[in-house]
Amino acid sequence: MKKIILRMFIILLILLASSFILLSICDRDLCENEIISQSRSPSGAYVVYVYQRACGATVGHSTHISIFPKARQLNDNDTGNIYIVGSSAGDAGIELRWLSDSSLLVSRKAGLSEYKAESNWGASFLGKVEYAHADGK
């Protein structure tokens, strides 16, 4: 009887450990960010990143733009905090130009599937984002 209880206990421990391992593997973020370009603001206080985000074989690439304080690095959990477009970086034709330390001009092709295009950024103050079409349309 003791052997049966011991075996059941060992089987239960194995099942619990296997479940924990499986959940930790499945819980990982399957997305990757590939930095296409980055640019510091005129004072160097902020960095704007243009990056391509890929989230597995069944989901297409998208292009994102994020602005962070200079000490903050882009990681694979980040999504665009100012701009997201449903096409690859090359197809989007994105060009950036800092107008001031708190103002950014984003030029991109016309007719893209834009999912996010914020006109302000920043938590403690509002920076401005302006948009223009690079191809004149």
Quick tags:
single chain; 137 residues; alpha+beta; 2 domains; five-stranded antiparallel sheet; four-stranded mixed sheet; 2 helices; 9 strands; 39% strand
Q: What does this protein look like?
A:
With 137 residues, the protein is an alpha+beta fold. It folds into two domains: 1-29; 32-133, no CATH class. The protein has helices spanning 2-26, 89-92, and strands at residues 32-40, 46-54, 62-69, 83-85, 95-100, 103-108, 114-117, 120-121, 127-133. The model has no long low-confidence stretch (mean pLDDT 82).
Oligomer: single chain
Identify the strand order in the major beta sheet.
Answer: 1-2-3-4-7
- Helix fraction by DSSP (H/I, runs of at least 4): 10-25%
Count helical runs: 2
One letter per element, helices H and strands E, the order comes to HEEEEHEEEEE
Average per-residue pLDDT, rounded, comes to 82
Number of strands: 9
Largest sheet: 5 strands, antiparallel
What is the total domain count? Answer: 2
Low-confidence stretches: none
Rg over CA atoms, rounded to whole Å, is 22 Å
Strand content: 35-45%
Outline, from the CA principal axes?
elongated
Structural class: alpha+beta
Q: End-to-end span in angstroms?
A: 81 Å
Pfam family, one: DUF5412
Summarize the structure.
With 137 residues, the chain is of the alpha+beta class. It has helices at residues 2-26, 89-92; strands at 32-40, 46-54, 62-69, 83-85, 95-100, 103-108, 114-117, 120-121, 127-133.
